[in-house]
Amino acid sequence: MGYRGLIEDNQKYFNRLLVLIDAAVIAISYVLGWFIRFRSGIFRHSFESVPVPVYMTALSVIIPVMIILYSAFNLYTANRMKGRRNEIAGIFAANVVSYLVFLVVLFLFHQDDWSRSMIALFFVFNVILDILARLAIWASLKKMWKSGLNQRNVLLVGYSRAAEEYIDRVLLNPQWGFNIRGILDDKVQAGTTYKGIKVLGRIDNLMVILPENHLDEITITLSLTEYYRLEKIVALCEKSGVHTKFIPDYNNIIPTKPYTEDVLGLPVINIRYVPLSNAFPAATKRLMDIVGSILAIAISSPVMLVFAVLIKATSKGPVLFKQERVGLHNRPFMMYKFRSMVVQDLKTEDETWTVRNDPRVTGIGRVMRKTSIDELPQLFNILKGDMSLVGPRPERPFFVEKFQEEIPRYMIKHQVRPGLTGWAQIHGYRGDTSIRKRIDYDLYYIENWTLGLDVKILFLTIFRGFVNKNAY
């Protein structure tokens, strides 16, 4: 058996060990939840309406079902580059789904005697303990890979910008456990090195190197001008059975996260992945906006009423300020705010950027802008469908035309509804701050949207968004 087979066996045994660890954590969390609920004395009413053996026998079903769900959420997928954040998100999502399934099963089978608080405790403990277990495992693997154990030997085929960028990332992350053995290329002289990685020879040397069975992975990093050789190289690698990856050399052409779709067997590369262009995610987000805006209007209505009176009493002009903004698919809409400035002519309002200590801002307006209270009427924009709770902030047509010419990819932000708050805003990019940085954050949000990310942004807005040093 070659070195590659040894690593594959190690991964197989590691996955089995991971399943056993998860099963043990599930069992411990379940028993701990039961003990806290019925034996700790913390809860006033500790009467068990379901016999203890029934509670414990249920584990024989709960454990395999949760292991299957963990697998469905890719928690047993071998990926050294996956990272802790994605794994923690997967654990949390799998447990939320498991909790909901558990409650639905109890409801369908009319199991009203089961303690819902015990079930909730079980899942809280399970999330915490499983995350701690995974972090401990991840730390052990990181230490092992850094020390040179169980590393994957990688050969790059083609010297290009993609090859250099891949080498940069691997060298910066030794915890991934990748050992780049060298590069094969026809146009760069053998012996040339990049950050210690040497060009070993020509691409035809693959026919000599592959039979030796010392490689775990081949990464094709051909330059764009060499793509005519791709079919032959892939066929050669696949014939040897070595795991093969392809890193396209078009990062300067498509500087985003593309995705492929199947058109009757023809793979089509979409330049940009926008999850909210799909019907189900868009409908889910819209439902969240409707429910969230109604609740927020109900909760904030006393605050809005107080400030409406203060605005009217302290300065001349209307309470609400309406201004045209550019929204979804470049469509204009009228955005509502509490008026925080003195009344101005339309051209000044539309074409002047607000700056620190702006003399146009009223006393009450300064308080509202500092605390973002002036934005509350946009909840009605959200209810109408012009805006969303979370998304890129909308801009005035004058500035949209200006930034469209000055900032690459600026108009992509209009592929989703604009938001009351956003990924850029919780990172401090609001007011008179870098538009380019703001767009980078907006693009990250657009391409990586999940319902969980929206919840995270809304939560962080409470601490970072409402009161902000750049809000003036």
Structure description:
The protein has 472 residues and is α/β, with parallel strands linked by helices. It has three domains: 3-146, no CATH class; 152-253, NAD(P)-binding Rossmann-like Domain (Rossmann fold), CATH 3.40.50.720; 277-465, no CATH class. The protein has 16 helices and twelve strands. The strands form four sheets. Strands 3-4-2-1-5-6 form a six-stranded mixed beta sheet. The chain is flat. The N and C termini lie far apart (67 Å).
Number of strands: 12
Structural class: alpha/beta
What is the residue-averaged pLDDT?
A: 84
> What is the 3D shape?
flat
Strand ordering within the main sheet: 3-4-2-1-5-6
Layout of SSEs?
Layout: H1 3-38, H2 52-57, H3 59-72, H4 84-108, H5 116-146, E1 152-157, H6 161-172, E2 178-184, E3 193-194, E4 197-201, H7 206-209, E5 217-220, H8 230-240, E6 243-246, E7 259-263, E8 266-270, H9 279-314, E9 320-326, E10 332-338, H10 346-351, H11 363-371, H12 378-384, E11 388-390, H13 397-406, E12 419-421, H14 423-426, H15 435-447, H16 451-465
Parallel strand pairs: 1-2, 1-5, 2-4, 5-6, 11-12
Antiparallel strand pairs: 3-4, 7-8, 9-10
Helix pairs in contact: 1-3, 1-5, 3-4, 4-5, 9-11, 9-12
